[in-house]
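Notes from hallway chat w/ T.B., transcribed later so I don't forget. T.B. wanted the structure written out for a chain they're using in a teaching module, and asked if we could keep both sequence and C-alpha cells in one place. Agreed to drop them here.
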Amino acid sequence: MMTTHPSTPTASKRIATIDVMRAIIMLLMLFVNDIPGVDGLPHWLGHAETEEDMLGFSDIVFPGFLFCVGMSIPFAMQSRLRKTAGNVLGVLRHVLDRTVALVVMGLFTLNACKTGLFMLLMTIGFFLVWLNYDKGPAMLKGVPQKVLKGLGIALLFAIMLHYDAIGKPFHTGWWGILGLIGWAYLVSAVLYLLTRSRLRYTLCAWGAVVLLCIINAQGGIIPEQYFSRNIFLPFWPGGWTHPALVMSGMVASLLLHRMATSGQHRRIFPVFVAMAMVAGLCTLVSHHFWIISKNLATPTWLFICLVILFIATPCVHWLVDEKGKSAWFNVIAPAGTATLTCYALPFFWYAFKQMWEFQLLPAEWNHGLIGIAASIIFSLIIIQITRLLLRFHLQLKV
C-alpha cells in the first residue's frame, strides 16, 4: 500500500492556480497560432526569426505551456499512484502511452501542411482514437468504442501511407509542438517517479536537466566534436531546454503547494521573486554565449522565460487561490481542463479554409488591430465550442 507524505500534492489539495494558468496559456496559444494569417502585425507580437536575438510575444507561449505541464505532474502522478496502489510500473506504462500519443499527434500536425484534406482527416482520426470514451456517452462504449478507435487508427495510417506514396514523405522534422511536449513530459515524469515530492531531490534533478541544457546548447561552452559533450544525450528530441522548462514548472508547483498548505503565504512572493532574480542573472550571463532564440531553444531563452513565469505564478496564485477570484476566468475555464481538445479543434477550421479557400472576413479586415481582434474572438469561440463538447462529455484525453 502506498503511503503519502503530508506535503505530497493530492487531488483534494490541488491549487486552482494550475488550471487558471493553463487556461490563460491555452488561450494565448490559440491566438498566436491564428495571427500568422493577419497582415500588418507589429514585429514584437510574432515569433522571432531563428537567428534573431529577440523574445517575441509568441515565443513566450510554448514555454509557458511546458511550465504548466510541469506544474500538473506532481498532482497527476500522485493521483495515478493512488489509483494503482503504488504500482510504479503501471504508472510508467501510462507515462509511455501518453508520450507515444503526444509524439504521434505531434508528427501528424507537423505534416499537416501538406493539404487541407490531410489536416481534416488527421483531426477526425485524433478524435476517433483519443476521445475519452470512458466518460463519453454510453452509446459509444464497448464494441462501438473499439470499432471507432480501429477506424481512427486505420485512417491515420492510410493518410500517412498515401502521402508517402505520392512523394510527400511523412517526416519527423522538429516533431511538432505536441511531439516536443511529449518528449519533455517523458523526461520529467520519469524524474518525478524517481524523486516523488521530495523537494531537495527534485531540485537536484532540475539542476541536472538545466546543466544538460547548457552543455548541449548549440555553439555553447563545449564544442560538438568533444566526446565529453556527446555522452550527455545531445540527440534527445528537442534537446534539454524543453524538459528544463517542464522541471521548472514542477519545482514551482511543489514550492507553491508546500508554502500554501503550511500557511506560509507571505513567503510565496519573496521566494518566487528570488527565483526570478536568479533566472535574470543567469539570463545576463548566458547571453554572452547564446542569443535569445526559441527555435534554437537556447539557455538564454530558457532563463528569460523563467523570469516571466516565476513572476506570473505567484501573481496568479494570489488572485485565484488567496483572493478567490477564479470565477473571473470562467469564460476560459474549458481551456484549462480540456486543453488537448482546445488545441485540436482549430484544425477543422483551418482545413476547411485551405480546402475551399474560404475567407470569413473581408480581406481588408484581416489587417492590423481588426485582424488581431478577430483572432482573439476566434480563440474565445474555440474555447466555447470546447465548453459545449464537455457538456456532452466529448473531449480528447491521453
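Follow-up for T.B.: The longest helix spans residues 88-111. Might be a good example for the class.
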